[in-house]
Specification:
The complex is a heterodimer of chains A (503) and B (133). Chain A is of the alpha+beta class and 503 residues long. Chain A has twelve helices and 33 strands. In chain A, the strands form ten sheets. In chain A, strands 3, 4, 7, 12, 18, 19, 20, 21 and 22 form a nine-stranded antiparallel β-sheet that branches. Chain A has a four-stranded antiparallel β-sheet with strand order 6-5-10-11. A three-stranded mixed β-sheet of chain A has the order 1-2-23. The longest helix of chain A is centred in the first third of the chain and has 19 residues. With 133 residues, chain B is α+β, with helices and mostly antiparallel strands. The chains are: A alpha+beta (503), B alpha+beta (133). The structure holds iron/sulfur cluster (2 copies).
């Protein structure tokens, strides 16, 4: 399509060299395009800088330790007790951000090792090997800093998602996820991403961003070297593979972190400069928080396709409150908007000071790729396929004596309590009865547990097994979406099923 | 020194003007940070800025009126040199003590904190620390 403004990358770089390139951040560009229109904006602005600062689990670093004397072919290696991958040549290893410390678990992981390396701290390296004729050594135990090793290269298979879904939790217990701590009964919402500053959302057609694009990565210059794994541009879920020299990075823009009871990760600052080649690009960089929508998703349901509650905009998310069923629910961002602005401003300063030039990409990124789910052989069984359907129940007004007789006659130990419309209202176990006897209580409603851990009919058995383990219980009632009791599922049922499948 | 004190009393006491009579007796300025009432009774968190002997006298006069008194011996601190202003903690805070400032930095309003500690594990870089004294 013909465009009115046509600017080449060479012209832009020449302006940077002369010190008169006009650079604005993507946040500033929103108003410029709104007020002046994209053509005028394209005439006036040369470059728009973007930025994001958030948890990027799919990050890690290639390290080369140099050869010892006698040499070793590292078979396994640990950095501060965090294992790195060594299935490559002798002294190369990849330390991944989410690998946990064998000593400190969730509190220290690959992300923290990477931060410590950047900070110039000493890292304890322990390696073992089987020994060969050319690499006879079997053990290494040394301390190194980034200055002692050859390469330390941050090399990330998936960074800077265009946008992220927002998360909430319908269940009646707190859950710990990669989207942070989610309180019960839609108690909070968490989100991530920098909205109008989002690097890929400012060039969603990949007109300027491609393989070889020079970017801001962790406080230094890095590059895009491929599309990211799970790149899904048609769903506005594009992402990139990035690479940069870890030794030059800065912990203002790179931090090891822990998501409570989920794992470790790396927070990373990343920014892409968008050259305003024409008004088409100017228009996409004018995107505002109101224009960027994402799905508010129920993480209470641990399925690949989690239910979507509604569509929300980044403007609503940044405002800090989202309406769910008529209630104002507080929102937490997991990524830092303040640091994302810091990235966009720092990149802007580099360009203005003539320290950063734009690169011509060598190949465009795919714009039509879709993200396929995992190929699975057997259909996953659901709670409804495994549960016992004919469940003996009692009402809240029934007597304890009646329940005791049921337990004795039938030999089970969970008695669901239901109301007239067969809605589950509580549960009584043989233990509750033992405690109740002698306290003078008469009705089941006096001894029942009201907060019942339940499963839904359409939940995969794996998810139910995880809940049994989490609460250290041996069985739970299965309900439908209206809370009506449909069956009961015990750990014995699950063991029996898994035995059948895995034989 | 600012001290925080948690007062607990049973429902029957709710009708008595305990706080005002204690203020009158002690002559100290009390700041009510948080109050909650239920069928079982009430809970009030106050702060007072006074030398220790006077605070001790204040505690005595509450006790004489049948109020259960607990001196708060902990504090939540937001270490700004560690914090990167993500906001993960904000939605877990029941009193909005943790909040987003105009420039998108995150801050803690100590006055509003009720020491529930919910925020502590939510911080990815452990910038929220509980200290006991
Ligand atoms: S301890 Fe509770 S009230 Fe205080 S800041 Fe943390 S979450 Fe808020
Ligand atoms: S969660 Fe931690 S890093 Fe994030 S804003 Fe709160 S204190 Fe700061």
């Amino acid at each position: 399509m013909e465009t009115k403004v046509n600017r080449s990358l060479a012209e832009i770089n020449e302006k940077i060299r002369r010190g008169d390139a006009v650079v604005v951040t993507a946040e500033e560009m929103v108003d410029i395009v709104r007020e002046k229109g994209e053509v005028k904006a394209a005439q006036e602005i040369d470059i728009v800088t973007t930025g994001t600062f958030g948890a990027m689990c799919s990050s890690g670093a290639w390290l080369n330790f140099g050869h010892s004397d006698p040499p070793i072919k590292m078979q396994r290696v640990w950095l501060n007790d965090v294992e790195a991958y060594t299935g490559v040549a002798a002294v190369d290893a990849y330390i991944g951000a989410t690998q946990l410390s064998e000593k400190d678990g969730f509190e220290y992981g690959g992300g923290h090792v990477i931060e410590d390396l950047v900070n110039g701290k000493e890292i304890h390296v322990r390696a073992t090997a089987y020994g060969t004729d050319c690499y006879p050594r079997k053990e290494i135990d040394i301390n190194v800093t980034k200055h002692d090793i050859n390469q330390a290269v941050l090399c990330n298979p998936r960074n800077a998602y265009q946008r992220y879904v927002a998360a909430t939790n319908s269940r009646n217990d707190t859950i710990y996820t990669y989207m942070g701590i989610l309180l019960p009964d839609y108690g909070n919402v968490t989100c991530s991403g920098s909205g109008s500053l989002s690097p890929l959302h400012n060039d969603p057609n990949y007109e300027t961003i491609g393989i070889g694009t020079r970017i801001f990565l962790g406080g230094t210059q890095g590059y895009i070297f491929w599309e990211g794994t799970q790149h899904a541009p048609t769903k506005a879920m594009g992402n990139i593979m990035t690479i940069g020299n870890l030794k030059n990075m800065d912990t203002r823009y790179l931090r090891g972190a822990t998501m409570q009871k989920y794992g470790t990760t790396l927070y990373l600052g990343l920014g892409i400069p968008i050259p305003i080649l024409n008004e088409r690009v100017a228009k996409t960089t004018g995107i505002s928080d109101d224009d960027i929508k994402t799905n508010l998703t129920d993480y209470g349901i641990p399925r690949r396709d989690r239910p979507i509650l509604k569509e929300v905009s980044y403007a609503e998310l940044k405002y800090g409150k989202i309406d769910i069923n008529g209630r104002d629910v507080p929102v937490s961002s997991l990524s830092s908007l303040k640091r994302a602005r810091g990235v966009a401003n720092e990149l802007k300063r580099w360009i203005e000071e003539g320290k950063f030039f734009l690169s011509q990409n060598v190949q465009r990124l795919p714009t039509d790729q879709v993200f396929k789910p995992m190929k699975q052989l057997a259909a996953v069984p659901f709670a409804r396929d495994v549960m016992t359907r004919n469940v003996i129940t009692a009402g809240p007004d029934d007597s304890i004596v009646y329940a005791a007789r049921l337990f004795a006659d039938k030999g089970f130990d969970h008695l669901p309590i239901v109301d007239e419309s067969s809605k589950l209202v509580g549960i009584v176990t043989s233990w509750d009865l033992a405690v109740a006897i002698g306290t003078g209580k008469e009705k089941l409603s006096d001894v029942q547990t009201k907060k019942v851990v339940t499963a839904r009919e359409d939940e995969p058995v794996d998810a139910v097994a995880r809940r049994l383990e989490k609460y250290k219980i041996s069985g739970l009632p299965v309900v439908d979406s209206k809370g009506e009791l449909k069956g009961i599922l015990t750990s014995d049922d699950i063991t029996r099923l898994l035995g059948k499948v895995r034989r | 020194m600012i001290k925080k004190i948690l007062l607990k009393y049973r429902a029957q006491k709710a009708k008595e003007p305990i706080i005002s009579s204690v203020i009158k007796e002690s002559g100290l300025m009390l700041n009510i940070l948080y109050a909650q009432f239920s069928l079982d009774g009430g809970e009030i968190l106050i702060s007072v800025d006074a030398p220790t002997p006077e605070v001790n006298k204040l505690i005595e006069s509450f006790k004489r009126r049948g109020v259960e008194v607990t001196e708060i011996t902990k504090a939540i601190q937001l270490h700004h040199e560690i914090c990167f202003d993500c906001g993960a903690c904000v939605s877990l805070c029941p009193t909005a003590a943790l909040h987003v400032e105009h420039d998108k930095s995150i801050d803690l309003d100590e006055e509003k904190c009720i020491y529930c500690e919910l925020c502590v594990p939510s911080c990815p870089v452990r910038a929220l620390k509980l200290s006991k004294f």
